Amino acid sequence: MRGATHAKWVACAAAAALAATACGGGGDGGGGADAVLSSSWGDPQNPLEPANTNEVQGGKVLDMVFRGLKRYDPETGEAEDMLAEKIETTDSRTFTITVKDGWTFSNGEKVTAKSFVDAWNYGASLRNNQRNAHFFSYIEGYDKVHPAKGKQSADTLSGLRVTGERTFTVRLTQKFSTFPDTLGYNAYVPLPRVFFDDHDAWLARPVGNGPYTVQSYTRGSQMSLRAWEEYPGPDKAQNGGVDLKVYTDNNTAYTDLMAGNLDLVDDVPAAQLRNVRSDLGDRYLNTPAGILQTLAFPYYDRAWGREGMDKVRRGLSMAIDREQITETIFQKTRTPATDWTSPVLGEDGGYRAGLCGEACEYRPQEAKRLIQEGGGLPGGQVKITYNADTGSHKEWVDAVCNSINNTLGDDRACVGNPVGTFADFRKQITDRKMSGPFRAGWQMDYPLIQNFLQPLYYTNASSNDGTWSDAAFDKLVDEANAETDTARAVEKFQQAEEVVRDDMAAIPLWYQNGSAGYSERLSNVRLNPFSVPVYDQIKVS
Which helix (H) or strand (E) holds 472? Predict the structure, then answer.
């Protein structure tokens, strides 16, 4: 899932149009189970269709409004049954799924097997142009519903079949032993009939089956969510709701937190890291998370896709002093990356420290030589594109460019190229408008090595924004997914990662911790392994 950022709160004048909201840190100003907390946020790129949301800010809301077959444990990240009563298979290719009884959407409609099948068919359809359609590509019939070329010749996936009110089967195109563990991702959540019958009304006020309901949303201002009292799940909200306030500068959010006008900042800006511990004490969280920051490249641009550019990319990587940047700017809330996954996976899960080797070490002389051998920087300069609606990205992009410029002895060899907002930044990326390297933060969707590789580097994958493609990589990923033995599957994925390494498909920068700061009104605040606050367990006093 693409890394996201924050946008500016347009405060109380704009909030007047919102129901049951108030200025200040606590929403309703009171405490207890009915009290509302406020948290910093940024507008999502797209409307909150589950299969069309693959960035962090929209994902935060979907995690509050929906529950799927699986849910990732907020402490360990382990995939655990939520709406799945059981998922059975004898061959790792055909799965029989039974949905638990007693679940409903917040409008009272019962959640059935059809709620899942209809949602997955919608998400897969080429006609609906969903960003996460690729997550359904292993289900039989995807080539008809979402062909690589031409019009779709079927409306539903032939591999999906409702067999009872609470049962359905999934037939995959090949063995995929860890398929059940992916089903906690938001693309796989169920949808109510109103989503299909009155789509515009649903988009204006999404209806889900999670612990919160959407009360109101004004883009650029605030989204108000309120606890759903009839929620049937075990993780019922411990507060009355959450007001997500939009900020274009998370330094402003931090200032509002310190002034008592905001309860929670879930991404402490780099400029505040030097003083955050003295400001907040135990109310500052800094925990490991499944997040990797990289520089991606537009392979659709001939200048970056030409022969020899692998040397240029490797040279640029070796021109970046990761140790100094993570130490001085991020105050050890980042760790220099040495592979393309995350340490939170552990060695058994596929993390391999040092896989990148010398290519991720600061070696300025070697860097300069490689860039020259590869034909030099396209046009004599690289522009690193990033979203500017946060205080964090400009600082590290400038630092990366300074490191590259010092290496090459040219203070204009690398410059930052800011885009005003995260939404505009993502639009330029999805419209294939990048002309050079760009920020590509990746927050895992589920804690599997597959998720750090396939969505980003597999040919035509949902988040392969640079359109990198390699047949050997694709083949190894397919083979890894087909393995029924977990250890052998991880080994195959690691071989695929070596292909990424050898071509330097993207430059790994650093692993990112989750960070947050919160007000004295809150307790039981924690971040899950995805760096997202566990909103439903926060208590307000």
Answer: helix 471-482
